[in-house]
Amino acid sequence: MNWQNLLTAFFGDAHTVVRTGDLLSGSGTLQGQTVAVIGTTDHAPIGVELALAQARCVLDTVKNFPGRPIVLLVDTQGQRLRYRDEMLGINRYMAHLGCCIALARQRGHRVVGLVYDQALSGGFITSGLMADACYALPDAEIRVMRLPAMARVTKISEERLQQLSESNPVFAPGVQNFVAMGGIHSLWQGDLQAQLLAALQAPLQGDTRAADGALRGGRKLAAAVAERVRSEPVPA
User: Fold this and answer.
1) How far apart are CA 78 and CA 142, in angstroms?
2) Is there a domain that residue 89 lies in?
3) Does this model's pTM top 0.85?
């Protein structure tokens, strides 16, 4: 689904969202409630300029519209792979974006992420995964790293990783696997406006991704290990 149809499904004509390059920004109104909309489109590579632009939209919302909910629309191929961006410290710009989203949450803004097309790598980690909860459309494409790249980093053969991905969601791309791991709260189907309203009104329960992953069988040990780290005394 393209971003124009998605916004129509959410708000009808009651929105002011515009596209500036690969940046989406504006607001929409549903059932009398106005929400800020910030996102990217066309499988946007997140370079320093786009990371800063998204961060500015978040900070402007915090400054000018205290408490206004924020909807993050995710469609990205990840960080832009250019020498210039690396030399400028793209990791710091993307971390800045993540910190701005965290600040918004701390200031009382409900933040909902939605992967409506593609979500890869750091462009997803510092946007949708920083929300109170992240959702996805069923035909979205999500992965953190392609298997060939994972093979180079882990020194495990691509053939072995392919075998592991057939039974372990941690090694496999795909939206269903991210649901199983708890990274995606749920898939939105049917009445998208009703799904968005429900997400905005859902009670905050903290970060439940590890627990969700354990319940769904996608990450069987993360929650237990985190609990051990939290509860066991530190040796003197």
Assistant:
1) 11
2) yes
3) yes
